[in-house]
Amino acid sequence: MPYSSFSLKQVQQVFHLNTMEQGGIFAAVAEREISALLREILADHLDLAISINTEKARSELIIAPILTEIRRIFRKQISLFSGIDLTSDREQNLTGFCDFLISQSPEQLFLTAPIITIVEAKNENLMAGLGQCAAEMVAAQRFNEAEDRSIAKIYGAITSGTLWQFLRLEGQQLAIDLEEYSIKEIKKIVGILCSMVEQTA
Predict the structure, then answer these.
(1) CB neighbours (10 Å) of residue 65?
(2) Distance separating alpha carbons of residues 174 and 167, to the nearest angstrom
(3) pLDDT in tens, 145-201
(4) Which residues contact 138 (CB under 8 A, 6 or more apart)?
(5) 3-class SS at 170?
(6) Could you give the angle at which helices 130-146 and 8-15 cross, rounded to 10 degrees?
(7) What range does the domain containing 116 cover?
(8) pLDDT at 124 over 90
């Protein structure tokens, strides 16, 4: 069963998660300055991605440049993967591909623990992607444990490129921020993503 088959209710029940839904969970995170390059890319790509209006276009033209900016900020000491298989527990159906994920390891040739952030691209209602993203976060948590590289928190993001929503998994506690951040708040989005890498969110 691929990650996309999971509903939020299924993830809660199967993996015994306690869910907290609240607005403004990441509101206190500071904005982060972005490079002139990212500003130029977004100015050039945004209208095109919206006009094409497919998940692939939004992933390539908006999401990937933002995540590449995060890797640049951390001087390539983290790794970024796109469309990678993350199979951590076949018996629990934690199998399939993730749109994007970030690891604290600088190793880029293959996926190495610890995974810190899962980013799921959606071209529709972000809420519809909560189950899939949460299941991928559980898979990342288990991948880290299997590699003996557990970390306190796994983060998730569901995004259309122009809207971003964030999640946090700490043990069995899944926190869902009900606030959606617009691409117009790009410094805030980058700040939140950076805080996830730093494990300060």
Answers:
(1) 17
(2) 7
(3) 999 999 999 999 999 999 999 999 999 999 999 999 999 999 999 999 999 999 977
(4) 11, 15, 17, 94, 169
(5) strand
(6) 30
(7) 3-198
(8) no
Q: What share of the chain is helix, strand, coil (3-state, %, to 5)?
A: 45, 25, 30
Return the structure tokens found at 5.
């088959």
How many separate domains does the chain show?
1
Work out whether strand 173-177 and strand 18-22 pair parallel, antiparallel, or are unpaired.
parallel
Task: Report the distance separating Cα 157 and Cα 89, nearest Å.
Answer: 22
Name the one residue in this structure whose structure tokens are 């288990």.
142
* Two structure tokens written together for 102: 């970030």
Pairing of strands 79-85, 163-170: unpaired
CATH number at residue 117: 3.90.1570
How many whole angstroms separate alpha carbon 21 and alpha carbon 9?
13
Taking residue 137's Cβ as centre, other Cβ atoms within 10 Å add up to 28
Helices and strands (H and E) in the chain: how many: 6, 8
